[in-house]
Amino acid sequence: MYRPHFLLVVCCSLATPLFAQEAPPAAEPTPHHEWLEKFTGQWQVTNKAFDPEGNEIMTCEGSYSARMLGSFWLIGDAIGEWSGTKVHAIQTIGYDSENKRYVGTWIDSVSDHMWEYTGTLNEEKTKLTLEAEGPNFMGDGKMTKFRDAYEFKSPDHIVATSSALGDDGKWVEFMRGDMVRAKDE
């Protein structure tokens, strides 16, 4: 005869030693995590878009608001307008201590693709470069590599660039922006 309470007792008695063990120690933030705090706050953003030949084709403005989630993750909220379409995006950036690289995601209101970043910080600790793969919106829509870089020119000014890997193996910059910390901070 099947006795559900008997199985519950057996399962609980087998699992008890697992729960009696000490939990692993909580992760400690590293200097790589602390570096991300530089992004926190409110930013005014002006972006310029370029065609593949480097000609400026449009300028757009928006905002970027960033906060830390605990000591490990940066959460960014970007709002702007692109070609007459309002765009809202959420960005996460953290540091994967095990694999020794920055990681993150980008999702937005105009695409069904989630961009998954991996990246590095330069030796001077002024420029974070993140790479991801996504649909090539400048060509045939096939997947290609993208690179976003955030370079701190000062604590209150970031130059952000976005590039795509061309068929010839060269990076083509298609957007450059200035992020300036809002004055009311």
Descriptive account of the structure:
- There is one protein chain.
- The protein has about 180 residues and is mainly beta.
- The protein has one domain (about 30-180): Calycin beta-barrel core domain (Lipocalin, Beta Barrel), CATH 2.40.128.
- It is built from 2 helices and 10 strands.
- The longest helix is centred in the N-terminal third of the chain and has 17 residues, at about 5-20.
Total helical elements: 2
The main pleated sheet reads as: 10 strands, antiparallel, barrel
CATH class: Mainly Beta
Please tell me how large the radius of gyration is.
Answer: 22 Å
Instruction: Domain count, please report it.
Output: 1
What is the strand tally?
Answer: 10
List keywords for this structure.
185 residues; mainly beta; Lipocalin; ten-stranded antiparallel beta barrel; 2 helices; 55% strand; globular
Quick structural gist:
This protein is 12% helix and 55% strand. It is mostly beta strands and 185 residues long.
Topology of this protein?
Blueprint: H1 4-20, H2 31-35, E1 41-50, E2 56-69, E3 73-82, E4 85-96, E5 101-108, E6 115-121, E7 127-135, E8 143-154, E9 157-165, E10 171-181
Antiparallel strand pairs: 1-2, 1-10, 2-3, 3-4, 4-5, 5-6, 6-7, 7-8, 8-9, 9-10
